[in-house]
Amino acid sequence: xxxxxxxxxxxxxxxxxxxxxxxxxxxxxxxxxxxxxxxxxxxxxxxxxxxxxxxxxxxxxxxxxxxxxxxxxxxxxxxxxxxxxxxxxxxxxxxxxxxxxxxx
Length: 104
Hints:
The protein is built from 3 helices and 5 strands, in the order H-E-E-H-E-E-H-E. It is 41% helix and 21% strand. The chain is globular and about 35 Å long. By secondary structure, it is α+β, with helices and mostly antiparallel strands. Helix 2 packs antiparallel against helix 3. It has helices spanning 8-16, 36-53, 81-96, and strands spanning 22-24, 27-33, 58-61, 65-70, 100-101. 28% of the residues are buried. Strands 1, 2, 3, 4 and 5 form a 5-stranded antiparallel β-sheet that branches.
């Protein structure tokens, strides 16, 4: 997956296709409501996929939710196609864990 920085217009377009993800500067973020132990299981599944695709999110685990923050570190902390691909993968994994949207 491409790791060249995306222009703002393409970021807006790709973000529109990912429900629940929001842009925070040069990163995209989303939180899922899930109890602590379910959050740990969710993180383990996401980490397995991240290892396979060679891209990772910053992850914040709390007692009632997990928050993901994605940017491409080796592209100068800019958004790339790899970030949006990972976000879509995280969405599918979260759905499998029955995690709910969460506002932080």
